[in-house]
Structures are given as C-alpha cells and as structure tokens.
Write a structure and sequence with these properties.
Blueprint (H helix, E strand, L loop, with lengths): L7 E7 L7 H11 L4 E7 L5 H10 L3 E4 L4 H7 L2 E2 L1 H6 L4 E7 L2 E7 L2 H10 L8 E5 L3 H14 L3 E5 L3 H14 L5 E3 L10 E2 L7 E2 L9 E4 L12 E4 L8 E4 L6 H4 E2 L2 E2 L18 E4 L8 H8 L4 E2 L1 H17 L5 H14 L2
Parallel strand pairs: 1-2, 1-3, 4-6, 7-8, 7-14, 8-9, 14-17, 17-18
Antiparallel strand pairs: 3-5, 5-6, 10-11, 12-13, 15-16
Helix pairs in contact: 5-6, 5-10, 10-11
C-alpha cells in the first residue's frame, strides 16, 4: 500500500482494539476500489474535549467507534442520525469541513447492519420478533426494526425485569403506537393473540380458553431455580424471529478453568420457544456457531450468524466513508476463514 500526500486516514477508536478485524476489512476494500486511504487501529483509553479537538485537527476521513466510547462519540458530535439519537450511542464518526472548521457527524451502523444480515435470510415486516437482551446492541437493533421494518410485535426478554421495563419505556417514547412487550424469563411460548380485522394483535386472557396448560421449566442464572409458567396449550405459539444480543454463548463466557460450561446454561431462552419456523439470529460471532445456533440448526430453523452483523455494519460504514461499494463477498470469506481458524 502506497502512502502519499493525498492519502485519507480512517481508523477504529476504542479500548482495546487489537482484536478488531476492521483494519483488515477496510484496507482490503480501499485497495479493491482503488481509494487512496489507510485504516488504522486507535487504542484510546481516555476521552473528553481534548480528544474531539485532536480528531478535528487531524482532519480524518472517518472513524469506526467501538466499546467503551460509543456513548461519548454520540454526545460530543456536532450532529447525529436518528438512530444515534434514539440509542444515545454511535459507532461511526464522519468529519466534514465547513469553512475553516471541521464538523463531526455521528452515525450508527449497528442497527442497519443487523437488519441487513437478517433480511438476507428472512422477511421482517409484519412478523413477531423476540429480542434477548437490553444492552446497546439490542437498542440499536430494536430501534432500527421499528424505524424501517414495522414488525407486527416486538417482545423483550432477559434476566433483569427492571432493565427490561426501562428499555421498553424508552422505546415506547419514540414509538408510542408500536406493540412492544416483555416476555418473562424462561417462557416456553408467546402469549396467545387474537387478530381483529384491520387491527393489531391483542392479548387474550387465559380464562377465555381451555384450561389445559403447559408447564415450562428453565434454569435461571441464579442457581437453577425452576420457573413455572402456565399458558393455554393449544394457544401457545412461537416467534417468527428470535434475536439474541446477550454475551451468552460467547467464547470467553463458555469456557472456564475446567473447560467449557454446560451449553444449556448458555441459552438465553427456553428451547421450547423455538420451532422449525423460527428464524434465529445470534449476534455473538465467536464462536461462529453458538449453543443457540447449534440448537436452532438441529430444529431445522433458518439461522443468521453473528459475523453477518459485523460484516454489514462495516458495509454501511465503508459506504459512508467513501461513497463506494466494498467487496462484500471477499469480506465474508475473510471473516469466515478467520473465525474458523479460532475454533
């Protein structure tokens, strides 16, 4: 790669960044489309006004931003896109000259990247979607779903009811007409719904149905406590799409001093929630096949690998950085090769 006077500088800002595959992807793409640029890792521990001034003075082309600086990136930017404003976090910074000043625009490609990965496998509009988790990635994905895809209903599940309620409350402020509800931990199926002509699904009380019930048991994170949930057997149903955003199943989370922990403990939902018609998306990309995806494949489900989100969030960033299309197929082969080598 030749570095000349007209070479633009891009990079990834975060701490740590040594593990990031972004420099490999973007530098390959710059060469592929003959764009005079270089993409470098920027391992930065501290942020603040000094860092914004430094970045402006460097006259950078753009930056990817990773943990723990996504919230800072959004707050310090001069402008931002709608998804960043909803999430309160950004993973992309664009630098635009206005006279003698450099203006910084914050964007979020996590949401669009995840949705593109999912849309390659499954239709989303009008479907029921369950999201496991309530962190930054889940917020970006949920918000993008509601912005662009209009699912019929959105369910949030996880191990902290207080955080789930807060997450739903925040989404409801932005999308007051959307159907967004909490799904209890360990649930074996969604509450039954009854479709009204020209309207959305509404919860139907169990007392209006058969007394036959199904008991779902699951081990929670706090010592294997058994949760019992009763629902009308003939009215239990499954989500069309399940999106897992928690660290469960991650390589560092599934291994310990004595080797791998039980895979059952690394499932974010009761296995009975999933059937052959459920599309399962796990955003964890290392290992490539998580316990959840392994289960989904055994059940005959369509699956979306976590590296696909990593791939497409970078696709959106590259478009924003250069106005050009990256070599997506080559990127995907590179990611798969790298992840398989880490088994």
């Amino acid at each position: 790669m030749e570095i000349r006077g007209n070479t633009r500088v891009f990079g990834i800002l975060g701490h740590p960044v040594q593990h990031s595959l972004s420099p490999l992807l973007h530098n390959m793409a710059f060469k592929s489309v003959d764009y005079p640029a270089v993409y470098i890792p920027l391992d930065v521990k501290e942020t603040g006004p000094f860092l914004k001034r430094t970045l402006q003075n460097l006259d950078l082309g753009g930056l990817s931003v990773t943990i723990p600086h996504k919230i800072w990136a959004y707050r310090m930017a001069d402008s931002s896109d709608p998804l960043s404003r909803i999430c309160g976090a950004s993973n992309t910074l664009l630098f635009k000259r206005s006279g003698d000043e450099i203006q910084i625009e914050a964007r979020n490609s996590d949401g669009p990247g995840a949705i593109q990965a999912l849309k390659n496998i499954s239709r989303i509009q009008g479907k029921s979607v369950v999201i496991c988790g309530y962190g930054g990635s889940s917020r970006a994905i949920a918000a993008q779903l509601l912005i662009s895809e209009k699912p019929a209903e959105l369910w949030i599940t996880g191990r902290n009811p207080t955080r789930i309620k807060s997450f739903i409350r925040d989404l409801k402020k932005q999308f007051p007409r959307a159907s967004i509800q909490a799904l209890e931990d360990g649930a074996a199926g969604l509450p039954s719904t009854e479709k009204k002509s020209g309207g959305t699904g509404q919860n139907v009380s169990a007392r209006n149905h058969s007394l036959k019930t199904r008991i779902a048991k699951s081990s929670s994170a706090t010592g294997g406590k058994v949760t019992v949930r009763e629902s009308p057997l003939e009215n239990l149903r499954h989500p069309d799409i399940l999106i897992q955003t928690t660290p469960l199943g991650m390589q560092s989370k599934t291994s310990g001093k004595k080797g791998n922990t039980s895979k059952a403990k690394n499932l974010p939902v009761n296995p009975d929630l999933i059937d052959i018609n459920t599309t399962v998306f796990d955003i964890v990309y290392s290992p490539m096949e998580t316990p959840l995806l392994s289960l989904a494949k055994k059940k005959g489900c369509k699956v979306v690998y976590g590296y696909s989100m990593l791939l497409y969030q970078a696709v959106f960033q590259f478009r924003w950085f250069t106005g050009k299309e990256p070599p997506v197929e080559r990127w995907e082969k590179l990611l798969r090769k790298d992840l398989k080598s880490k088994k």
